[in-house]
Amino acid sequence: MINYREILRLHSLGYSQRRIESSVRSSHQTVKSVLEKAKAQGISWPLEDDVTNAMLDELLSGKEQKGNSPYAEPDFAYIHKELSKKGVTLTLLWQEYCDNCRANGQQPYMSTQFGDKYRRWARVTKATMRITHKPGDAMQVDWAGETIPYYDAATGDEYKAYLFVAALPCSCYIYVEACSDMKQENWLLCHVHAYEYFGGVARLLIPDNLKTGVISNTRYETRLNESYRELAEYYGTAIVPARVRKPQDKSIVEKSVGFSTTWITAAMRERKFFSLAEVKEAVAERLEIINTTPFQKRPGNRREAYLSEEKEFMLPLPSVPYEPAVWKQATVRNDYLISDGQNKYSVPYDLIGEQVQLRLTKNTVEIFFKGERVASHHRLTVFQTQPVVKPEHMPEKHRRYLRYNADDFRLWAKNIGNSAERVVDYFLKSGSSQEQGYKSCVALMKYGEKYGKEKLERACEGMLEISTVPSIRTIAIILKNGKEPERKTSSPTNSEKYGITRGAAYFKKGGERNA
Question: What pTM value is reported for the model?
Fold first, then answer.
């Protein structure tokens, strides 16, 4: 029997055909024919140990066909290609094979023989390596362990760029992106960018058990981060985290991480970057090289394999890309405000003391209580000292205060009397802004409600008689006592004139001190 295994092994080592003929003691035509048929059927070295010369003889010499076998030989390459399609099984293909044989007057193999022959063909040609994953079925994601340094051009400070890697197991098409950190916002954004790069969404999403995506993953329960679950729901995919300490569950992305470490991180080790933007651009360039470099053991490259075998099975992208949202918990304080970490926003005042959930996107702040949205604000991009407050979130007395303005105060005072009008005008003009006098004006209005217009007007008149600097406290005393404080007519004494400061005479020898 021809030593098929040795012929293929020597050929893989680069031996010439003449040396192979001499080593295996086969004719020139035999060796040439074996190599041509092996190439046509995708059979190459190395082969599995259980692949015997007898199996290779059956595949490459076609003895069953030469012996006028009554059975029609299946087209295994066609079967393999069809099996990669969604919903197609070996049983369905065997049924179609039988129908085709009967239509042509041929004898089909039984289902068990059909399956055995296909699996033997697949094992020898290594086709099983390509059908373990259905096209469009899964996207595996992870962070690469190695980082890319970049530097501040002014200070020379060193920073690290982290690599996000996403891989489609069927075509081995990959997406790589450089990020400033591995926090949740970048994690979610990278998924969005990966889907846009692929032009579609895989049915399953297989991450590792990192905290930005998975809260816990036990034998009985998987708890996902709310933001990550929301992203999957938006794109219509399902998150199935890899089992803890089971890297084989995402073997393709593990290999892709190693591949990107070699062909991106290591390949750029001599380059020096001075911004994250430069790193991103360089990574994108290397990514194009990776996805367009020809495969070593099969025709085409990653991009061609994706376009021809997988793209049509990807789920369509939504019309609008997902806007990443970060969820966090907060307790509503007495000022009925919550913070996004930079600015403050109002919630309904009756939630004071309650715990609420914040959904933060780039442009919005949403507040949820027991699963129901109770408030929404446009998110500020820069720090602002004043909180963002909606009037409907405030108690009635706070809303009333918010509606106050200088014109309303003056109009009210005019209805009280001339003296009240002068006092209000002073309150509004005494500070650097009118708003500083609002509190005194509000207090004056409350006294008007309590004591009546006439008493308030007389109190303001009395206040102006004793001082040109009205004080809300003095007015309150006048109203409470029913009369104005006595005015001081006597000239101030030395102690009143100087307060606690002692004059020079106090320290003179023999002066008043010793009198």
Answer: 0.53
